Amino acid sequence: MSTRDTGTEQLIKDTAKHLFFAEGKLHATTQEIADAAGVNRTLVNYYFRSRDILFDQVFNEAQDVFSTTLDEVFESNIPFKEKIRNLINAFTEETKEYPYRQLFIITEMNRDLVLYSKRSRVNKVKEFIDEIQVEMDNGELRKMDPRQFIINLFSLMAHPLITAPLQKAIFGMNDDEYAKLMEERKELIFETIFR
Amino acid sequence: MSTRDTGTEQLIKDTAKHLFFAEGKLHATTQEIADAAGVNRTLVNYYFRSRDILFDQVFNEAQDVFSTTLDEVFESNIPFKEKIRNLINAFTEETKEYPYRQLFIITEMNRDLVLYSKRSRVNKVKEFIDEIQVEMDNGELRKMDPRQFIINLFSLMAHPLITAPLQKAIFGMNDDEYAKLMEERKELIFETIFR
DNA sequence: CTTTTGTTTAACAATTTTGTCAAACTCAAA
DNA sequence: TTTGAGTTTGACAAAATTGTTAAACAAAAG
Question: Where the record puts its DNA-binding region(s) (chains A, B) (predicted)?
């Protein structure tokens, strides 16, 4: 069967991603998704058969984009510090656009609906760990479990973006003020990580 | 009207907290809560009238416990470094037990169902910021926006616990190995924060 | 212009989840 | 032991959400 490509299928998927990852509405109903997309709810079933299948597709694509972004940084053949700088930039921008994506992945993992695809990310991480170890041996980094280094890095990048609403409330800041703070963090994270 | 206190009301509330905060099942149904508590679902309505009211109570109590824990640390009249050490301990233990509590608070905030009670946490935070500023002026801390210091601290503490399932998958670790890593972090966070 | 095929819509059915009610039950007080 | 207030239960009703179907529609092909 051929297709006429009215763009509706992609529109629904993009809208779902926006609701889930950008607005944090992790349990939006098909009606809410359809309304946000400005289409008839039945089209969700027409294109995706069921809500669960839409969920799965969005979930998997989210993981792929996320993985690809990180891989491009990891695999680039440039000095370690530059690599980290690129990572901070790429990750921050990604997370700014979709702050709740990781959160979505985690909650879905907790529902046991999706078995986390061990698409052997483990191996690529091992390479990154080795690279970090070399830097530590050369005295470029404070010695510690390289996994702690990675955890530190991602914590400093991701957490303030994931918890943005909470932080804004605690500090009494508006969106612009917080965005500025996040921009300043890029350099600050770099300095913190490298002592 | 007096009460006979069979413990059922508290049991339901505790079970809900456990599902939400410990297991991350943020959208557990009343049936699931009742089953987990081993009681008839109707009792949820008997004690709380509606599911939303149960949600609100659990949500508010979560905020209160969280706030109280932090306040006790903030208000204690001890040297700054000790205060931070206590904070790291208290916060880590709390988050270990209920890793998804903050996540729950955030997603609820995004549903616009609950207006974040600005119970003037802002003021207490201001005092803490001042205290940090003094330390920076005295050269005890690297100079930066004190809010960044706070964000760094909470990011390093909370994020690896919130994203535990993800991290375990990425690093290929089991529960015990990850718990050990988290324990080692307490000291590591302290050192990272104080350069 | 007619046909064909893919798309969209509304009405309907099925399922899931929540809320209500009266009856049964339990335990303490009279 | 009876009475009575609070508790628990199952049956039922209501609401919300999802899934299905047939008919209307739109655009390309013949």
Answer: 29-48
